[in-house]
Amino acid sequence: MAEGLRAYWYQGVDALLKGDEALAQDIFMSAMLECQVDEVQERTAELVAVLENTAIELLQASNWAGARKCYEMALEADQSFENLTLKRILFWREIYTQHCENRGYEFKTDWFSSNIPIWNQILKKFVDSPNLSFLEVGSWQGRTTCWLLDNILTDPSSTITCIDTFQGSMEHESMGLGEVVKSLESVFDYNIQQTGRANQVKKLVGFSQAWLRQLPVNSFDFYYVDGSHVASDVMEDVVLGWGLLKESSIIIFDDYGWRAYQDQPTMHPKLAINSFLEVFQDRVKIIYKGYQVIVQKI
Ligand SMILES: C[S@@+](CC[C@H](N)C(=O)[O-])C[C@H]1O[C@@H](n2cnc3c(N)ncnc32)[C@H](O)[C@@H]1O
């Protein structure tokens, strides 16, 4: 990409994200006016790529409004632009946001909804099945738990066991979530009540490393690993959880692509997830590897 133009594209994206769409369009237009006619197609493709990549990065940072703006601007720049994954995520996000409002949920963060398209695909086989047992380490305010209850654990005989200290993790303080942490457990309880399925939830308050040792072996169909992000904790969570899982069960690890702590591998889930995948390579099938990792126990 020509260096001079790169600066224009990023300046324009910056203006767009600050809410000045007219300025963004002016910047993009000035860059186009500097090109030769035969370069316009190539430059448009560059601009669209910058907007597309920014939209993906913003989604990973849960900046939905920014992602939507970039997606819409990419469509405006090139009407044939298509990124089905982005489109699907933004589409589901809208439906899901409306659903949360209707239910009266109280969520202060959203680290979940970009997963909906892939979770829908992988977990649809469980919908309406009786006697399912799901396990979640790291429930926070219950966003994922509520989605599972609303969409997957739809048979009243199915349950989810949620383990959380409800004390947050060290990164939450630096993210400015100190106040949210103070009321985690009561907000979790409130949200679970709003599902109308509170009787399907078993809440276990405390450290996963302690609770996972007390649960029945060979009893869970699904395990979501989203508690502490410290590699050694993630390793304990998955190894202690392994024996609790039935054959063919699904394990989902969150934050494999987490942007924080990339330079401190022992503070990041990736080191543990990669180690697990290597050691258990003959015993798991990898279904998906992106921001999350999804495997099936075989
Ligand atoms: C990233 S949040 C989970 C987000 C949640 N899954 C969602 O979708 O909104 C991580 C949670 O793990 C909990 N946690 C951290 N370390 C833990 C541990 N060792 N045992 C149990 N819970 C832990 C924190 O209290 C926090 O609620």
Relevant terms:
alpha/beta; 13 helices; seven-stranded mixed β-sheet; elongated; binds S-adenosylmethionine; single chain; Rossmann fold; 298 residues; 2 domains
What can you see in these coordinates?
This protein is of the alpha/beta class. The protein has two domains: 3-82; 113-297, Rossmann fold (3-Layer(aba) Sandwich), CATH 3.40.50. It is built from 13 helices and seven strands. It has helices at 3-17, 21-33, 40-60, 64-77, 84-103, 116-123, 143-151, 170-174, 178-182, 184-195, 208-211, 231-242, 269-279, and strands at 133-137, 159-164, 201-205, 220-225, 245-253, 284-289, 293-297. It is elongated and about 70 Å long. The mean pLDDT is 94.
Helix content percent band: 40-55%
Q: Which stretches are low in confidence, meaning pLDDT under 50 for 5 or more residues running?
A: none
Strand segment tally: 7
**CATH architecture title of the largest domain:** 3-Layer(aba) Sandwich
% residues in beta strands: 5-15%
Number of helices: 13
Hetero groups in this structure are:
S-adenosylmethionine
Largest sheet: 7 strands, mixed
Mean pLDDT: 94
CATH topology of the largest domain: Rossmann fold
